[in-house]
Specification:
single chain; two-stranded antiparallel sheet; globular; mainly alpha; 4 strands; 61% helix
Length: 366
């Protein structure tokens, strides 16, 4: 789950990098690696090494709760709406939430048919398709299972990056991380228990959604970043394009009776305004204050929050198999994101999209 670090102004206090939000559900990362010089100044990630303030810790906790609760909110929204209706409304609310933020900064809508063509492809792979797949999946599996399986997104990113030749730096650590993460997926699916809900089409839909996110990161890294467009506007444009796509699907799949239950309606509103809108701004603020590495730690909390909320609110079972799968997947992801010669997890994705990582959402967020 994210911003690109651009040239550091020479007079920046303590060499603090200027951060701009990249588009998630777009993808964000640091252009600054340890030891690399930017704008004539050595940058070694001071922002990430500083002690967190209480305000930043609260923001990180709030962001983790917003994104981690997304799977619970989808599950509750399904009590009154179908997956296509849910995605259409949440994307629309996300646009309406972010538009005033962009307007207050004087940002303009992206222009050019080629830019919007790429935005529509990105919206299809990063928003429309995976969001609908997760909604379909949660009609079959629990919100906790959906949250855990979605955490495999960075593993898909690594695999696809290797296959298409974007990531040629395949180290033993990354290979071990991928293997560990894959083992976690096998444990979660428990194919030897074919009657179990995890070994179902719903779980496969979750896995397909995670792969779709990974594909979108590669696509956006090639066609949308570094094009001179404010990243926040790319995020809004992507959500707007997704709204149009879902609007086109509504006559076919969305014109079914809805139930205006208070829990379903409230969950959908919160999912759109907070989880799809406000979370973008909150994530940007964390990156700005503490750096991208600090912001990336949110990713590791998402499946844990999904499991915890599913257990507390929906009484979803927490089995040893699920907990073991979570531990294996997150350990594998941590290894794939580790940079050579570093003892800490890198803020960037495993080079699946060089110098790009999602600013709109964390890997595994929904």
């Amino acid at each position: 789950m994210h911003a690109r670090i651009y040239r550091v102004p020479p007079d920046a206090a303590r060499f603090r990098p200027r951060l701009m939000l990249d588009s998630r559900s777009s993808v964000a990362t640091s252009n600054v690696r340890s030891g690399r010089r930017v704008g004539g100044h050595g940058v070694s990630g001071q922002a990430d090494q500083q002690a967190f303030s209480w305000a930043s810790l609260l923001r990180i906790a709030a962001l983790a709760l917003l994104w981690g609760s997304g799977f619970l909110l989808i599950k509750l929204s399904l009590r009154g709406f179908n997956p296509v209706q849910i995605v259409f409304v949440r994307l629309l609310l996300g646009v309406l939430t972010l538009a005033p933020v962009a307007a207050s900064r004087g940002l303009r809508v992206p222009r050019g048919w080629h830019v919007w063509g790429h935005l529509f492809v990105a919206a299809l792979m990063a928003n429309a398709l995976p969001y609908v797949l997760v909604g379909i999946a949660e009609q079959i599996v629990g919100s906790n299972i959906a949250g855990v399986i979605n955490a495999t997104t960075p593993l898909w990113s690594l695999l696809l990056g290797i296959l298409v030749g974007v990531d040629r730096r395949v180290t033993a650590t990354k290979a071990a991380g991928f293997g560990l993460g894959f083992l976690g997926v096998v444990v979660i699916f428990s194919p030897w228990r074919s009657a179990h809900e995890i070994a179902s089409w719903g779980a496969l839909a979750c896995l397909a959604a995670a792969a779709s996110y990974a594909i979108s990161y590669l696509y956006m890294g090639r066609y949308l970043t570094n094009r001179g467009i404010p990243p926040l506007m790319l995020s809004i444009g992507q959500l707007a394009a997704g709204t149009v796509l879902l609007g086109a699907a509504m006559p076919l799949f969305g014109l079914v009776p809805v139930s205006w239950r208070w829990d379903a309606t409230l969950s959908l509103v919160v999912l759109g305004i907070l989880g799809t809108g406000l979370a973008y701004v909150l994530n940007y603020r964390i990156i700005q204050d503490e750096g991208p590495t600090a912001a990336s730690t949110v990713m590791y909390l998402l499946p844990l929050i999904a499991v915890l909320l599913g257990w507390l609110i929906l009484d979803e079972p927490v089995t040893p198999t699920v907990l073991a799968g979570v531990a294996l997947v997150l350990s594998g992801v941590a290894l794939t994101r580790k940079t050579p010669g570093s003892t800490t997890v890198s803020s960037a994705k495993p080079s699946t999209r060089p110098d790009t990582e999602s600013a709109g959402t964390a890997p595994g967020a929904v």
